[in-house]
């Protein structure tokens, strides 16, 4: 099993009337609530946490991109990755990922990732995401063009990293008379690529065809199983044996010395994440044309409730999050690994309004007591795709 310490860098200091007065912490939540001094401290605290994760033995430390939101303070994850590249030595620096569907210039992403690969001596992982629906409103990009822009930007970046000669790229979304990338990445042919999926069959096939890693987002276990099965099946239809490490399971985790203490402390942080940080309307997340009709139909038929209507108990029972003592967390993650067949765990430990002391203790308990027990999993075990 490979372990990744993932950070969203949330801004937890929401006003007292947030629940009643604001529909979401994203897109329309006024930036007047961002306290400059508190925000400044948060960035330094969060970077310390990521650096500490390497010291505790995590294989990767991960950041990601969000815009105009208290949910995550990283409009440029590449800046965070650059801050980590020279202060860490071993762990992969994982940008999960750059929202290339809303970027005006994908070549800028190719250039920055290549530079990061040099700064980190070949430790960069490059994630690509489409961006959440409301981020298209924030960037002025038509969400109906999301899929085409994403696919095209992906292909352009790969070619820019690997081409030996200058080339021209003329298409419906991007036009470049000259593409001639300096520098090229350290890793050959290019850094590993991760792509998250939320039920889109197009994404499962796309990830399989390119040999990338498929990441889950927060969802009930049966739904994540369906997604992983779809990706596994797409890989096997290509005549390739699926490697469990190419299935990455994302989940918030809180560990304390006892189950009672973990639930007493962890409940409010889990509820902050799902009931406040992820408070967003359906049209915000899935504007018309953002998903194909088939993928939208599949998602609607899944029966998944909005995060804000899912109780703490339902979140734990459904596999959206894992909370407990080291023994309980080990047992629960072992159970989930057996059901889902993942070989990579992307854990969110800095959850919502968690304090620095709570986060550090949870992370240390996980690294010292849970990680060693789970390490052998996800390699030899193999889950066959459902037919």
Describe the protein in words.
- By secondary structure, this protein is an alpha/beta fold.
- It is 44% helix and 15% strand.
- The chain has 14 helices and 11 strands.
- The protein has helices at 18-21, 36-55, 77-85, 106-119, 133-139, 146-162, 201-210, 221-237, 259-277, 282-285, 293-301, 312-317, 326-340, 356-374; strands at residues 2-6, 60-63, 92-99, 124-129, 167-170, 175-179, 193-197, 213-216, 247-255, 322-324, 344-348.
- The strands form 2 sheets. The protein has an 8-stranded parallel β-barrel with strand order 1-2-3-4-7-8-9-11, surrounded by 8 helices. It has a two-stranded antiparallel sheet with strand order 5-6.
- Strand 2, helix 3 (77-85) and strand 3 (92-99) form a beta-alpha-beta unit.
- Helix 7 packs across helix 8 (221-237) and helix 13 (326-340) crosses helix 14.
- The longest helix has 20 residues, at 36-55.
- The radius of gyration is 20 Å and the shape is globular.
- The chain starts with a strand and ends in a 13-residue tail after the last helix.
- The relative contact order is 0.14.
- Residues 380-387 have low confidence and may be disordered.
- InterPro entries: Bact_Lucif_Oxidored, Luciferase-like_dom, Luciferase-like_sf.
- It holds the Pfam family Bac_luciferase.
- Residues 43-338 form the Luciferase-like domain.
